[in-house]
Amino acid sequence: MSVAVTLPDTLVNTADIYKKINKRSRAGQIEYWATMGKIALDNPELPMEFIEEILIAQEEAKHPELLEEFSLE
């Protein structure tokens, strides 16, 4: 479901910078931050890097054909 929300200009401007670095859309960058923030709040004992690795592993599991393409074997 898509819902329009009003966000502060500073958040949107910062997302525009990070979206270029991370190769995401503006909405994708803000969604990423929200996902990371929710997981971090739910699991305060986990380092952010570990949370990010979990999210990457979940995406990789959805697309095993991509992992085979970049295999070092």
Task: Calculate the mean pLDDT score and round it.
Answer: 90
| Helicity, as a percent range | over 70%
Shape: globular
Structural class: mainly alpha
Number of strands: 0
Q: What is the radius of gyration?
A: 15 Å
Q: Which properties best describe this structure?
A:
0% strand, 73 residues, 71% helix, single chain, 4 helices, mainly alpha
Task: Describe the protein's topology.
Layout: H1 9-22, H2 26-42, H3 48-62, H4 64-69
Description:
There is one protein chain. The chain is mainly α and 73 residues long. It has one domain (9-69). The protein is 71% helix and 0% strand. It contains four helices and no strands. It has helices at 9-22, 26-42, 48-62, 64-69. The mean pLDDT is 90.
Question: In a few lines, what is going on in this structure?
Answer:
The protein has about 70 residues and is mainly α. The chain has helices at about 10-20, 25-40, 50-60, 65-70.
